[in-house]
Known about the structure:
By secondary structure, the chain is α+β, with helices and mostly antiparallel strands. It is 20% helix and 35% strand.
Amino acid sequence: MAKNGEWLCSRGTFILSSLKSLKIKSCFGFFVTDAAGLSSELAMLFSISPGSEAKGGLNVSNGSSSFATTMAAPNRDSRCFETFISAEPLAGEGILELFTRLSVTLNELEASIVHLMVFGSIDAAAAGTEAMRRVFGRLDWPVTWVEGAACDGRPIAGVQVFALSGGPIEHIELDGQVMGSTFVSGAARQCVLGGLGPGHLFRPRAQQTQETLERLQHALGQAQFELADVVRTWFFLDGMFSWYDEFNRERTRLYSRVKFRSGSVPASTGVGGRNLGGGALTAAAWAIAPLNSTTRAKEVPSPLQCPAPAYGSSFSRGMEISTPTGRRLLISGTASIALGGQTAWRGDIRKQIALTMEVVESILRSRGFDLSELTRATAYFKHRSDAGFFTDWCAARHLDSLPVVAAQCEVCREELLFELEADAWRGGAF
């Protein structure tokens, strides 16, 4: 979470796995090598801004920070590693300045964008797209822009970037637009898709859902992936409350014909929000095709909630990807839902946040993780005025450095006020 437009991973600190925060003075040290000189694992958060310079050329702030960033090197067979950046605009900063800072950071890291997700006003999308083109040139990566309004009224709530260093990225195009990126990391071929939507905007919403899922499969097929390889999805539905059940039926109908390689339907987030294309929905997805048995994906159930398919939603509570150098845990959008599937604590935002976070922490603990190992998270609020309650929850637990972007979106049930999705990484051979 952020206060006054500044990230709370401040004071120039690195947060390294579960270790205490370290003041960084003269060492950078984000890349670890073993005796053979091959990349090994690392997961860290750090704050960066045009402030003091650290060895290796990365600017490390001693005051307010620019980004909360997590880096990992999940592939021993190459020197590539994945970088996750969650950013919110600084106080008084415009859209162009935000993307300029992001570009500088990526250049310092020698990283290329795999996928960029923006939570912001649709009215700001034209300016945002123009700013990205001015800063980056041609947009050679998928962009998922969702009207997740900023909880403090700014045009952009936050940006989440999945980037890769040290390895080539190939692109997938649909209708002349980049919709996906493929690369090899963690002993697996990986494909990340974004900005997917229907081809016909005036058809019934069920048909638009079918078209979007068909385009998802077509994009996967271009890179020799299948729907069975998908481990994580995001669906953002315009006017969600009026047709979420209809969407679920179409998704379930498709999934029922697929034998997912993980053994389960993907982890997922489904929230409400308008999109750039003007369709009923937009989607993003992450697929993984292991190159050998050292990498595998499997479902992670929630200790405190029943499986979502039990009440008609076709997604897993979580998915774990084990690689030669560590484990990644992908936690689906999680809300205040009791063990039996019913909504808990109607109308009480504090208790909904508390239960949601209890559920998230229980999933983390079930796989040996904790909140300090989060690499990315999104907090969705039905009412923007409720964001401060989550800030208070984090502050009371000294969790100010969580890499969270907060946005106003419709959550999957009208009585739900809060939802959180999260990813975590832990290094070490499994």
